[in-house]
């Protein structure tokens, strides 16, 4: 049935039947088909569309707000912040950009099938896709930081400064570390962050051999995890599952496409939906209309599996490499306690770093290993939270005076929300923090065997 005819059925009819009984009978019989028609899903007015786009989720769709969520303990003053950020929203890489640019043409097929009454997308949703303006930077920017990415990082720093004004004002040369790993988007993210602090502060030179990305120089990680096809076996398996195939079929049918969608086409449409969603200006992407929430959850799982094996619990090396990063955190706070530490340490890196650190902390860990054979809808491992753009882990060290005694506490935050599971109520007394983190100082990564500088 052409969708315009279905929409006619939505119009409320004047109910002038006097008998209430007659009225209910009338409603029963007339509304039954209407209820079925009602399953027609309009994206543009759906109220709360699904917004978990795994590793391409804009930060504003997942963040908390450190100004509201900061845990204050009586008698304590923040003396240092150690933090780790994924770069802000970036443009797609060359491969994805190419597929996306081609996939824009799919909208012509959608328009045709709509004209011929074969497309069951809502009229407005079709209009919005047709009228979407091509932003050529999307295809030419190749992994560079986007304007939104800049604003994500700038705003985090801005909120952090508002939360800890004493700590982050008048920073002297030896009181801060802003260190991006070697890549433009990391460096631009670091610059955005420093701009957001609102002081002229220098950013460290890019280092190839960075302590915060131990995996880049770990030969075995490269050969056995990152570049090993086995790492992506479970997600490939999932992409052959009936659940995944049904998702493809749904898109094909709803959009009324005659062309047979390949996995690449689906991924390209997914990328168009995610990359053109503005989190910071709260503007939904019209491309997302080709997906139902269920479709988006299936696509999300593909990437969750990839991340799980590439940088999470799926490969044991990942946790161990994360220990190196946590050892840096401990050392950083020990130096502050000894009177020669930094007021702020901020590292800017990629999702792998964040995932490895979260894994080393034992967070988002499922009892059962994630597999391609079955999607656990209630899984803890979720890349949209862990590795959204600008995803971040912060640890705040405070000096406290309680009953005349000096002590320290550490509070952790993920995306500006307290992490309450590491210590009771989210507040780690110094001793508990040190006891938990000390073993990381002895992490042995001899298993890397050889050094593989990229
Ligand atoms: C669909 O994907 C294939 C490769 O899998 C590609 O050759 C083709 O151009 C894509 N079509 C569109 C419309 O993007
Ligand atoms: C990088 O780190 C590795 C392992 O720690 C070391 O063997 C190598 O000499 C370092 N290379 C550079 C250029 O600093």
From TrEMBL:
It is found in: Cell membrane. It is an enzyme of class 3 (hydrolase). SUPFAM superfamilies: Phosphoglycerate mutase-like (SSF53254). Pfam families: His_Phos_2 (PF00328). The chain crosses the membrane at residues 20-44. The keyword Hydrolase applies. Its EC number is 3.1.3.62, 3.1.3.80. Keywords: Cell membrane, Glycoprotein, Hydrolase, Membrane, Signal, Transmembrane, Transmembrane helix. The keyword Glycoprotein applies. It comes from the Eukaryota. It catalyses: 1D-myo-inositol hexakisphosphate + H2O = 1D-myo-inositol 1,2,4,5,6-pentakisphosphate + phosphate; (2R)-2,3-bisphosphoglycerate + H2O = (2R)-2-phosphoglycerate + phosphate; 1D-myo-inositol 1,2,5,6-tetrakisphosphate + H2O = 1D-myo-inositol 1,2,6-trisphosphate + phosphate; 1D-myo-inositol 1,2,4,5,6-pentakisphosphate + H2O = 1D-myo-inositol 1,2,5,6-tetrakisphosphate + phosphate. PANTHER family: MULTIPLE INOSITOL POLYPHOSPHATE PHOSPHATASE 1, MULTIPLE INOSITOL POLYPHOSPHATE PHOSPHATASE-RELATED. Belongs to the histidine acid phosphatase family. MINPP1 subfamily. This is Multiple inositol polyphosphate phosphatase 1. It comes from Chilo suppressalis. The lineage of its organism: Eukaryota, Metazoa, Ecdysozoa, Arthropoda, Hexapoda.
């Amino acid at each position: 049935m052409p969708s315009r005819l279905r929409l006619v059925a939505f119009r409320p009819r004047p109910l002038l039947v006097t008998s209430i009984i007659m009225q209910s009978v009338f409603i029963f019989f007339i509304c039954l088909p209407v209820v079925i028609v009602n399953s027609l899903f309009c994206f543009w007015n759906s109220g709360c569309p699904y917004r978990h786009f795994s590793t391409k989720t804009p930060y504003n769709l997942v963040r908390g707000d450190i100004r509201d969520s900061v845990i204050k303990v009586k008698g304590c003053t923040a003396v240092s912040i150690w933090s780790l950020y994924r770069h802000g929203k970036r443009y797609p890489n060359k491969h994805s950009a190419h597929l996306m640019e081609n996939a824009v043409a799919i909208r012509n097929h959608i328009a045709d099938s709509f004209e011929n009454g074969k497309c069951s997308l809502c009229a407005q949703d079709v209009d919005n896709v047709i009228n979407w303006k091509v932003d050529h930077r999307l295809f030419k920017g190749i992994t560079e930081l986007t304007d939104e990415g800049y604003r994500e990082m700038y705003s985090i720093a801005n909120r952090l400064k508002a939360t800890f004004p004493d700590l982050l004002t008048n920073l002297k040369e030896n009181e801060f570390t802003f260190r991006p790993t070697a890549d433009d988007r990391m460096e631009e993210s670091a610059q955005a962050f420093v701009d957001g602090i609102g002081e002229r502060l220098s950013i460290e030179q890019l280092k190839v051999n960075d302590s915060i990305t131990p995996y880049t120089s770990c030969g075995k990680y490269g050969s056995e995890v990152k570049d090993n096809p086995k790492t992506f076996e479970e997600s490939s398996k999932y992409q052959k599952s009936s659940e995944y195939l049904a998702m493809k079929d749904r898109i094909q049918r709803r959009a009324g496409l005659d062309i047979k969608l390949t996995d690449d086409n689906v991924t390209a449409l997914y990328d168009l939906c995610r990359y053109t969603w503005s989190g910071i200006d709260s503007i939904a992407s019209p491309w997302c209309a080709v997906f139902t929430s269920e479709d988006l959850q299936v696509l999300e799982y593909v990437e969750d599996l990839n991340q799980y094996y590439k940088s999470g619990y799926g490969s044991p090396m990942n946790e161990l490499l994360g220990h190196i990063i946590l050892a840096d955190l401990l050392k950083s706070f020990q130096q502050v306690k000894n009177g020669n530490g930094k007021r702020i340490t901020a590292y800017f890196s990629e999702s792998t770093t964040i995932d490895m650190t979260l894994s080393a902390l034992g967070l988002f860990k499922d009892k059962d290993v994630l597999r391609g054979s079955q999607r656990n809808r209630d899984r803890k491992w979720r890349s949209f939270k862990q590795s959204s753009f600008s995803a971040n882990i912060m640890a705040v060290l405070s000096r406290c005076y309680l009953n005349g005694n000096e002590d320290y506490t550490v509070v952790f935050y993920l995306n500006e929300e307290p992490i309450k599971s590491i210590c009771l109520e989210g507040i780690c007394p110094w001793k508990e923090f040190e006891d938990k983190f000390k073993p990381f100082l002895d992490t042995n990564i001899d298993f890397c065997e050889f050094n593989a500088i990229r």
